[in-house]
Amino acid sequence: MTFLVSAKGNDINSWRAAGDFAANYRQALLERAAYNKNGAATELFDNAFSSLEQLRSEHESLLAQLEGLLVKIAVTAPSAGLRELTTTFYDKLYQHLGLFHSAPSFYHMSMAFLRQVSSSLVSHASEQLGLFAKRMPAVSLVALGPAGRFEYSPFCPLQLMMVHGDTDAAGRETLNLFGHILHTGFEELGLRIDPLITPRNPVWRRTLVDWQQLCVKGLQQQDNSDLIDLLRLAEQHVLPPHEEIGQQLKDISIPLLQSSRPALGNLVSRMQSLSNGLSMMGNLKLERRKPETGLFSLLDHGLLPLSSALSALALIKGVSADGTPKRVRDLLKRSELDVDLAEMILAAWHTLHEFLLLREKSFSIDPNNRQSLYLNPDDLDDRQLEALKGALETVGVIQRQVAVIFSRMAE
């Protein structure tokens, strides 16, 4: 019920399970009312309506607070309390998650935060450069990885690349300083930023022409390390405030990846090597190494194989929508997926990300904290365990589907 109350956009309205839930909820109320006499049925319906109204009110209140914090973040300098606003924002967002268990709502607001913080830190970095900022060409920040597919949380390492216009040696020197200021700015907010895929690393800071040439050349070679790095561009989200040149890179790189059989083959091969976390007998595959002995790796056996399979499917089918729900909807509209499989994928995505985010809610934000990536099966009730196994079975199904689709491309 809480998931439906907090759902955003029309995605849930087009999901057949929403209608099933509404019908089942109504039927359950009617059945309970049939056994009540002397006005108890009226009280039952009144209480149900009151509960829904309370949830709606709490949702709207928290949403208003979150949007108010985004407004404050927009006008707050990093040195004037931006870290405190970041902490407060995610405290409220995880509070919303605890009430409504809605991964889409969480990621929607988390991406809004990331976009606003990006604008603030880029402006701050430019101010720090002073007159040297005039030597800078046009610049765009592009999020990769989880943030690139609209699944950002403060616990995941933020992967950022930079694309910029042509410049001279002085401009490149300024860009290097600019990249270091940005990297430090994100860290000072208490956020986890990838130590390698960062604008302070010249490997991930190039001109638009350089990126294009790198894609064309790299996709013609058979070097796995080059292909793996280039395939990171399959998940891109251009961040403000300057998005034009970043969008140009996306418009160039995604079609190149989609048309490269070596790249697709590399991605599918790595996807097939990932376990969906279930043994031949249907039991969870638990960690054997310390200190995670006996725990289930939600990342290795759930989130990673699912995102890998869906990324491969999106490239194969030429879908470039942002985020898993939108990609699944696009594939469904194009009849690349049937309704049942689309619903299974969405249900698995919701289940796995709900587990992840609720685990994160239990911990303080810490760049070195990986405990949120593991589940203790002993802490799960029968319903949760069944939901987890069902999601993992779906991961295995979509992995096999993608492998078959790719193999048929050669026929």
In short:
With 411 residues, the chain is mainly alpha-helical. It has helices at 2-6, 16-34, 40-74, 82-100, 103-129, 145-148, 169-188, 208-218, 224-231, 244-258, 261-272, 298-317, 324-333, 339-361, 382-408, and strands at 139-144, 159-164, 205-207, 237-239, 296-297, 374-375.
Descriptive key words:
about 400 residues; mainly alpha; Four Helix Bundle (Hemerythrin (Met), subunit A); four-stranded mixed β-sheet; 15 helices; 6 strands; about 5% strand
- Sheet-strand content, in percent, reads 5-15%
Structural category is: mainly alpha
Helical content band: 55-70%
Describe the global form. Answer: globular
Unreliable residue stretches: 1-14
For the largest sheet, list the strands in their spatial order: 3-2-1-4
Largest sheet: 4 strands, mixed
Pattern of helices and strands: HHHHHEHEHEHHEHHEHHHEH
Q: CATH topology of one domain, which one?
A: Four Helix Bundle (Hemerythrin (Met), subunit A)
Number of helices: 15
